[in-house]
Amino acid sequence: MESYLKKGIISWDHLHKSTGDAGFIIGEPLDVKFGKGSTFVKAKLYKTVEKAQRVVDLLKGGCTRLGASIGGFIRETVKLGKSVKGISRIIWDEVAVTYKPVNDFTRGNVSLIPIGAFAKALAAGAGAGFDSVGGRAMIPESLQGSTIKVDKLMKEFVWRLGKGDIKSKEDFQDFLEYHEVPFLYGHLSKVLVNKFN
């Protein structure tokens, strides 16, 4: 976090890396706070950068389709099951505002929030704040506890299945165990068998 706050950036869709165009660097972080399973990044967008202004215009216009994606370099991984790995350390150097995060199950929300509401939401820790675009509560979601939403769990499951991380019944059980929802195994197994049989 300290390194990100000192040297990190806000980009549009990570494109400054692939294009070499600094015009895709649209801002910089001001503060980072960690909640229960959530990370909040407060940032400023550069007024004179065209792409930053377009993001602001989208948000002011009511856009709720923008997400956030972190960028950096993996330093260390850990084994979570027989073939499921997790990332334990990264060098964090950017947050990209994007409409298509690669890992959709980790999708964050991007919104314009008055400073007072932002501070109140962080202080409450359980989602007392709201955003100025859609009025949705900022509620932390644990990716390691049973409070994980089923749709996010299923998106991660499909993503890991496609990557080849989950290849067997045991891998699936490990995945559910990691998310502390092993009780879903019987029901989800039946759903999957009925769908793909």
SSE order and pairing:
Layout: H1 2-7, E1 9-12, H2 15-19, E2 25-34, E3 39-45, H3 50-60, E4 67-79, E5 85-98, H4 115-124, H5 150-163, H6 169-178, H7 185-196
Parallel strand pairs: 1-5
Antiparallel strand pairs: 1-2, 2-3, 4-5
Description:
It is a single chain. With 197 residues, the protein is of the alpha+beta class. The protein folds into 2 domains: 111 residues, no CATH class; 47 residues, no CATH class. Helix content is 35%, strand content 24%. The protein contains 7 helices and 5 strands; from the N terminus they run αβαββαββαααα. It has a 5-stranded mixed sheet. It is elongated, with a radius of gyration of 18 Å. About 12% of the residues have low confidence.
Structural class: alpha+beta
- Cα Rg: 18 Å
Q: What is the domain tally?
A: 2
Oligomer: single chain
H/E topology pattern? HEHEEHEEHHHH
Concise account of the structure shown:
By secondary structure, the chain is of the alpha+beta class.
Please give a handful of descriptors for the protein shown:
197 residues; 2 domains; alpha+beta; 35% helix
